UniProtKB/TrEMBL annotation, chain A:
<comment type="subunit">
    <text>Homodimers and heterodimers.</text>
</comment>
<keyword id="KW-0539">Nucleus</keyword>
<keyword id="KW-0805">Transcription regulation</keyword>
<dbReference type="InterPro" id="IPR003311">
    <property type="entry name" value="AUX_IAA"/>
</dbReference>
<dbReference type="Pfam" id="PF02309">
    <property type="entry name" value="AUX_IAA"/>
</dbReference>
<dbReference type="GO" id="GO:0005634">
    <property type="term" value="C:nucleus"/>
</dbReference>
<keyword id="KW-0804">Transcription</keyword>
<dbReference type="GO" id="GO:0006355">
    <property type="term" value="P:regulation of DNA-templated transcription"/>
</dbReference>
<protein>
    <recommendedName>
        <fullName>Auxin-responsive protein</fullName>
    </recommendedName>
</protein>
UniProtKB/TrEMBL annotation, chain B:
<keyword id="KW-0539">Nucleus</keyword>
<keyword id="KW-0927">Auxin signaling pathway</keyword>
<dbReference type="GO" id="GO:0010152">
    <property type="term" value="P:pollen maturation"/>
</dbReference>
<dbReference type="GO" id="GO:0009734">
    <property type="term" value="P:auxin-activated signaling pathway"/>
</dbReference>
<feature type="domain" description="F-box">
    <location>
        <begin position="17"/>
        <end position="58"/>
    </location>
</feature>
<dbReference type="InterPro" id="IPR001611">
    <property type="entry name" value="Leu-rich_rpt"/>
</dbReference>
<dbReference type="InterPro" id="IPR041101">
    <property type="entry name" value="Transp_inhibit"/>
</dbReference>
<dbReference type="GO" id="GO:0019005">
    <property type="term" value="C:SCF ubiquitin ligase complex"/>
</dbReference>
<dbReference type="GO" id="GO:0005634">
    <property type="term" value="C:nucleus"/>
</dbReference>
Length: 191, 590
């Protein structure tokens, strides 16, 4: 395999220098090109591109933070997006919550980010657990239904679903519980 | 090929046979490459071949027009189309670049072609196209969409409602706008022909009762892949009414599976004695993987590459019992230890893909795989011929060992996560390691290289990779010589894609005729200039030379006259139909 005459041409120190991008380009130009390329695609942006450029704290010579390189490593966006979601979940950002219903033998889990507003969420819960909760209105809450959807918020308090603006609900909801019967009356009916 | 030559020798005698007989003989030659050869033998053979060709594969939808395709092959039944270049998978191609399905469906519909099968990859598909498709082809049987986008579940509803003889609806990794409608309900009650249904990539809720009814009335259903909205109890019911399943993709499992539901699931799984292929598991608690223990010895294909919540030790526990596995796609959380166990358990393994669970190295974990795992697999699995391996580090010694252990590689794709990373023990480039691979693997058709590489690796590739058809290069090489070695040496090269490497005009322009023998060339963040590309376009009218600009809004917003400007992204491909008319503003065709 060794062909000394040919090899000598290629052994040059620059090639072994650890750097990203083309030998000969300046770091400034490289970053600029990368910054522009980061904005190109209108597919879901990687969360990393929205972070500030920060030092990774590791000592790698002349190497911009890895997250800056568009399209690297070569993993399909679809796959990357699916794995990202898992990470967010495990960091407890409150997007996936458990749902229980009094009297039902099983728990369910739903992704709150899939819904845009309360009616969608309620419809989905109704489908899931086969119950009906009726319309929510500020005055009387869930009047006329023996089921009342409640949730536990970040502070550990049990609240009625629908009382706070949707975005606040999504960010503070830790889990859902559909109450039934007398316990429900206390929370659900307008007082 | 041999058959074609033999037939050629007896052409003179064969011409006394009626056309139908010759056509019948051609039916035994399905390979489209052999078919292409046959059609070149003589005028009469060309004609007979044309009318008897039912399957056509078009690797680049812009290489030919739908009208010309139909004119040549009017009896077309099965069409495969590929649109965007491969690097579109990694966000390197603007969303609106092209690859639209509609003109094809439109033309096929107008010509009343009896289309039965359509397979698309990286195409832009609209609901209108799907609707037109569903109404135009009475005998339509099979729709396979891979990495496509532009459509919603409304389009799927049309397919479900109108394709009376639908056997296969296979949606793989598409971006589909889920309107959470009732598309599954749109399969009429009389629809009983389904053999394969895959909607794993749909993100919204699924109408479970519609799904269950559909599965219950589809006795021929062999492959079912559901999305994450199908929970454990529904899955149990589905499997109970489809024990004939061969291929299963699992949706979502709640973490708190009640013991009773778990028992029921295991009972249903035990009955699926024909099950050979398993995938999905995107939200699964480890305990639920254990439900599949009863049939794991039968599995030949296992895709756990989306199972981010299952830790390495659970993966290992499961995989070690899958003694008949031929295909394994897994996350690097399995670790080197896990791969060593795979190597000792899965002696039938042919294809392995190890994906990064932490692509951007955010967690700085040490459970990713290294050269140790790769060497172990190569030593333990004698039938291995395809590998895709994402790892943190590699050495020449390991690659040389792998080459010795596995000279049968057809596909070898190695991605070291950090660009330009050298051999982590010797700090040298990985030229020798990859050189060993191409020298030993005489049948190598696809290669992706990574790590620190000089022009020398390309010298080796040009010298030894005689069967190479596709080469992917990133952050590699020193001078134009590197690219030239490849272009001059690899006679069978069809696709070359290069990013962030110092190849420029000299390499690009050295042998313009070479590109006519290839499907396409992609170069991004290299050294080619606008002037070089213009010169190429002038000298090669049979090529479309596309420049994709940085600014999506305008044409070249930088000084257009400055031919010394480096081109950000170049994509060129041979075509018989000239410049395409559907390019967006950010694409300039020279």
């Amino acid at each position: 395999m060794e062909n000394v005459g040919v090899c000598d041409e290629f052994v040059n120190l620059k090639a072994t220098e650890l750097r990203l991008g083309l030998p000969g380009t300046e770091d400034g130009g490289e970053e600029e090109r990368q910054k522009v390329s980061c904005c190109k695609s209108n597919k879901r942006a990687f969360p990393e591109t929205e972070k500030d450029i920060e030092s990774t704290g590791k000592t790698k010579p002349a190497s911009p933070p890895k997250a800056q390189i568009v399209g690297w490593p070569p993993v399909r966006s679809y796959r990357k997006n699916n794995i990202q979601t898992k990470k967010n979940e495990s960091e407890g950002q409150g997007m996936y919550v458990k749902v229980s219903m009094d009297g039902a033998p099983y728990l369910r889990k739903i992704d709150l980010t899939v819904y845009k507003q309360y009616p969608e969420l309620m419809k989905s819960l109704e489908n899931m657990f086969k119950f009906s909760v009726g319309e929510y209105c500020e005055r009387e809450r869930y009047k006329g239904s023996e089921f009342v959807p409640t949730y536990e918020d970040k502070d550990g308090d049990w609240m009625l679903v629908g009382d706070v603006p949707w975005e606040m609900f999504v960010s503070s909801c830790k889990r859902l519980r559909i109450m039934k019967g007398s316990e429900a009356k206390g929370l659900g009916c307008g007082v | 090929m041999d058959r074609a030559i033999k037939l050629q020798l007896s052409t003179s005698e064969m011409n006394y046979f009626p056309d139908e007989v010759i056509e019948h003989i051609f039916d035994f030659i399905p390979s489209h490459r052999d078919r292409n050869s046959i059609s070149l033998v003589s005028k009469s053979w060309h004609k007979i071949e044309r009318y008897s060709r039912h399957q056509v594969f078009i690797g680049n939808c812009y290489a030919i027009s739908p009208e010309r395709l139909i004119r040549r092959f009017p009896c077309l039944r099965s069409l495969t189309l590929k649109g965007k270049p491969h690097f579109a998978d990694f966000n390197l191609v603007p969303h609106e670049w092209g690859g639209f399905l509609h003109p094809w469906i439109d033309a096929l519909s107008k010509a009343r072609v009896g289309l039965e099968e359509l397979r698309l990859k990286r195409m832009v598909v609209s609901d209108e196209s799907l609707e037109l498709l569903s109404r135009s082809f009475v005998g339509f049987k099979s729709l396979v969409l891979v990495s496509c986008d532009g459509f919603t579940t409304d389009g799927l509803a049309s397919i479900a409602a109108n394709c009376r003889h639908l056997r296969e609806l296979d949606l793989q990794e598409n971006e589909i706008d889920d309107h959470r409608g009732q598309w599954l309900n749109c399969f009429p009650d009389s629809s009983t022909t389904l053999v394969s249904l895959n909607f794993a990539c749909l993100k919204g809720e699924t109408n479970l009762s519609a799904l269950e009814r559909l599965v219950a009335r589809s006795p021929n259903l062999k492959s079912l892949k559901v999305n994450r909205a199908v929970p454990l109890d529904a899955l149990t019911r589905l499997m109970s009414c489809a024990p004939q399943l061969v291929d299963l993709g699992v949706g979502c499992y709640e973490n708190e599976a009640e013991p009773e539901s778990f028992e029921k699931l295991m009972a249903a799984i035990k009955k699926c004695t024909l099950l050979r292929s398993l995938s999905g598991f995107s939200e699964v608690a480890p305990v639920c993987l254990t439900a599949f223990y009863p049939i794991c010895e039968n599995l030949t294909s296992l895709n756990l590459s989306y199972a981010a919540e299952i830790q390495g030790n659970h993966l290992i526990e499961f995989v070690q019992f899958c003694k008949r596995l031929q295909l394994l796609w897994i996350l690097d959380s399995i670790g080197d230890k896990g791969l060593e166990i795979v190597a000792s358990s899965c002696k039938e393994l042919q294809e392995l893909r190890v994906f990064p669970s932490d692509p951007h190295d955010e967690e700085d974990n040490n459970t990713a795989v290294t050269e140790i795992g790769l060497v172990a697999i190569s030593a333990g699995c004698p039938k291995l011929h395809s590998i895709l391996y994402f790892c943190k580090q590699m050495t020449n010694a390991a690659l040389i060992t792998v080459a010795k252990n596995c000279p049968n590689f057809i596909r070898f794709r190695l991605c070291i996560l950090e660009p330009n990373k050298p051999d982590h023990i010797t700090s040298q480039s990985l030229d020798e390691g990859f050189g060993a691979i191409v020298q030993a693997c005489k049948g190598l058709r696809r290669l992706s290289v990574s790590g620190l590489l000089t022009d020398k690796v390309f010298l080796y590739i040009g010298m030894y990779a005689e069967q190479l058809e596709m080469l992917s290069i990133a952050f590699a090489g020193d001078t134009d010589k590197g690219m030239l070695y490849v272009l001059n040496g690899c006679k069978k090269l069809r696709k070359l894609e290069i990013r962030d490497s110092p190849f420029g005009n000299a390499a690009l322009l050295a042998d313009v005729g070479k590109y006519e023998t290839m499907r396409s060339l992609w170069m991004s963040s290299c050294e080619v200039t606008l002037g070089g590309c213009k010169r190429l376009a002038r000298n090669a009218p049979w090529l479309n030379v596309e420049i994709i600009n940085e600014n999506e809004n305008g044409r070249m917003e930088r000084n257009e006259e400055d031919e010394r400007e480096k081109v950000d992204r170049l994509y060129l491909y041979r075509t018989v139909v000239g410049t395409r008319k559907d390019a967006p503003p950010c694409v300039t065709i020279l």
